[in-house]
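Holo prediction — WT7.
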Amino acid sequence: MNQRPNNSLSLSDNDSFYSPSDDFAQQARVSSMTQYRQMHEMSLQKPELFWGAEARELHWFTPWNQLLNWESPHAQWFTEAKTNLAFNCLDRHLEAGLGEKAAILWEGEPGDTRAISYKELHQEVCKLANVLQSSGIGAESRVIIYMPMIPEATVAMLACARIGAVHSVVFGGFSADSIRDRIEDSGAELVITADTGWRRGKTVPLKENVDKAISSNSQIKKVIVYQRTNTPVSMQAGRDTWWHDEMASAPGQHEAAKLDAEHPLFILYTSGSTGKPKGILHTTAGYMVGTYTTCKYVFDLRKDDVYWCTADVGWITGHSYITYGPLLNGVTQVMYEGAPNYPDFSRFWSIVETYKVSIFYTAPTAIRAFIKAGDEFIKDHDLSSLRLLGTVGEPINPAAWHWYYETIGNSRCPIVDTWWQTETGAIMIAPLPGATPIRPGTATQPFFGIDAAVLDENGNPCPPGVAGKLVIQKPWPSMLRTIYGDDDRYRDTYWSDYPGKYTTGDGAIMDEHGNISIVGRLDDVLNVSGHRLGTAEIESALVAHPLVAEAAVIGAPHELKGEAIVCFVTLKAAESQSPSLSSELREHVGQSIGAIAKPDQIYFTSGLPKTRSGKIMRRLLKELVNTGEITGNLSTIEDPHVLEELKATVLGVSS
Ligand code: WT7
């Protein structure tokens, strides 16, 4: 490792950091730690200078008069300014003569392909903006987008942004019940969906799920359906229309709305520690400047890059680093519709080779699946176009890091481990690839303008190497503004630990150089394949089953998914337990949340460990599953006898 040629990363003296190669650093936007530290310092001391300069690279109909108006916990960024995100993603590039540049190189799961230029994307977005407006959708109307990974998902988001409608994208893997909850909570009036989508060679019944979600709901006035697979679907006259019919007659010109900086942009639901997902609200200008700037620096974008983020637009990664960040930067990106292992595990690498992808951004869970599948799926593919790799969603274990670095990056490409959240809108902690020495599994340094700290219970900084709570001590442009319809929950969840500081919910450790490693969630939220799932959400799905009395859900380490979902269930009547009940409950959870929430393991038990006030002691269950014993503090347990039965159940021995 020490003898690497000049174009590779090299291990530094203490044998655990990889420094950027000279070649990479020389061409990078930020090329040394000295430069990073100067810029970071300046961005915190003089945010007007840093964010002002970044923001001025974008288009404003009216400039701001104040960078930030902060009345904790409410921020307004770029006050009085008027802008439009879709204009900045599209029209701005057409005006700069980049209309013919490819915006999206798309590949469908069956192998069909499309190349869409910025000009064509602009045209489609203008048409759909007109369709939405003539359907009665105006500024602040809420629109649900439930789509496969096709360019029309991006078109739908940008069309909303163009007219000031608020989109709420629902991941295509979520169930009808989840769509219904989101429609009700957001007060949406219109749904954009597709007949079905492709996933592993099978069709996903998107329109059918929408039909179920709105069968008893009159709030949705219109459903626009894109024909992706031509699978027959039922169309309700007066409510449902075809995308192609609407677009055929829509004008291709549309003047982008001049929106207030704080105009709501989207609501994206994410799991919290109660059963009800939180509608995270993001607004226009701050989110725009945050995603633009982070995308540019963290991926060190150049004009000829071919960028590929493998996320789904249904998650925040797809919002910030498929739709908004890359298009704001005028980059060419690859978009892929289907599963990484369809028809086999070589699919991603054949895409990298075909489109000459230079920047590749994926999740550790996918990397672990590739390792397991075996290197034979990679060896026949030319991956030499890659110059930068990224990860997101969960900590990357060193074994996965080394494989990614060596087998995919050929020991030449820096890996940016990006830590952020649905709430933060944009990357918060990540290496700058030309500057920051990288240590496997460490998200490293805070981005410009981000004041991150690791604090103890009393609000004092933890010494280097000691774990504490990860907080952000100053507001930042792309921060969430509230939880839609529940500002009290916003205050309680994020701002009540330490006054004026944002609590991330993650534990972290900082080293003596200020590098931050993420330890994991501190609340009752699981990270399953990089997706957040609340234990309370799964528990409430389980107890909604007629046979279930009580349920407790915990996470356990899982080789591929990071965390597995383990459930303890008590039944109303013990005799109702049957050999098929586990799979019935798994299906039931799948129906009420989505396939990603299906439990990996269900234990049936006659009782759960509780405190005297009746709170389920999940930490004991977690310890039992993870270590095979219970050693923790048992003084508050109401009935210690249940532990014996639980041990016997989990360890498979009779007591
Ligand atoms: C949670 C946020 C950020 C987009 C995808 C997930 C975990 C995220 C990392 C990372 C360690 C990470 C945290 C965070 N997480 N990125 N690089 N290293 N942990 O967004 O669903 O809002 O989840 O994902 O626990 O709080 P999300």
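READOUT: Residues 270, 316-317, 392-395, 417-422, 443, 504-506, 518, 521, 527, 530-532 surround WT7 (CB under 6 Å).
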